[in-house]
Amino acid sequence: MLPYWLVVIGASAGGTKPLMDLVANLPADFPAAVCLTTHIPPYTPSHLPEILGRSGLLPVVHAQDGEPIQPGRIYCAVPDHHLLLQDECLGVKKGPKENRVRPAVDTLFRSAAYSAGPGVIGVVLSGMLDDGTSGLWTIKQFGGIAIVQDPEDAEHSSMPASALNQVEVDHTVRGQDLGDLLVQLVAEPLPYAAGVDIDPATQHRVKTEVKIALSDHAFRKGVMEFGKVTPQTCPECGGVLVQIKEGGFTRYRCHTGHAYTGDTLLVGVTEHVEETLWRTMRTMEEAVMLLENTGREFAQAGDQRLAEAYKRKARDLEERSVLIFRDVTENERLSVDTLKNEVQHRNP
Predict the structure, then answer these.
(1) Superfamily of domain 6-195
(2) Where are the beta strands (DSSP E) in the chain?
(3) Angle between helices 304-330 and 262-300 in degrees, nearest 10
(4) Has residue 337 got a pLDDT over 90?
(5) Where in the sequence numbering do the catalytic residues fall?
(6) What pLDDT was estimated at residue 341?
(7) pTM for this structure?
(8) What angle, 0 to 180 degrees and rounded to 10, lies between the N-to-C axes of helices 178-186 and 16-24?
(9) CA dist 316 to 284, 288, 319, Å?
(10) What is the CA radius of gyration of the chain?
């Protein structure tokens, strides 16, 4: 456990503004370390340290693998790498994606809870879907403090709303008030880790999941023992998925290490349906071209009956590919948000 408070923050779409407000309200002598994970595309550089550095007094940097963590500094995740806490150092690792992203909020939160226990303050800000819910639940299990941006104040309410629905949250605040709240909280003495009663099975699983995020081999780490094997397969790699129960919600992890909440799995599965339909249509069109080319060769050789048979089969396949194309264009990518929106429009 660290000798000072650790604040871990997760944000996605709409998270930059509350992060800027937060940094602007933190004093230069802020006594805690701060780690930030935002959903960053892997193909673009992140300028978050420069943006936040201009907003406040604390130094803001990209985390470096193996770097000792220090109070009074803000560490940002780098693109395409998870940010984790390893005892008193930072880990910047390319472990399996979680919730279809890397870096993932749940990965940071889970590692912070395991390493720093009740000395962790977890914050979920604006974002879509539900990354951060599982990690915030874990922080609470290890004795930490849970804070969520008021969904009414968030540009995108899904992430904070999910955390509020599934986690016993300690504070719900507007983005502009978060800095003042954190200053108050870190002024309190650190709680004792010995006073936290953690379920041994949860502690073992969290330890294993942190190791998986650090790029350890998931199958050899016993991921198949986390829960019952499901009929679903991983949209990322096709591996078997194991069901993990946390409080009142369910997560999934495959034997190669990819992890999903129920909502992100639904998004991934429906996206995979569209990809499969496109591949099917491509294969059928390739078959049409092959039948047409072969039919022309038979016609040139003087076998008109066989040439017509090939031409007829080509037409049949082409008509069927039109139906596949219609399925592709009508396919929906589903999530909790899209289904809620559909229900609201049907029952105003």
Answers:
(1) Methylesterase CheB, C-terminal domain (3.40.50.180)
(2) 6-11, 33-38, 60-62, 74-76, 82-86, 89-93, 120-124, 145-149, 171-173, 229-233, 240-246, 249-254, 259-261
(3) 160
(4) no
(5) 12, 39, 131
(6) 72
(7) 0.86
(8) 50
(9) 10, 9, 5
(10) 25
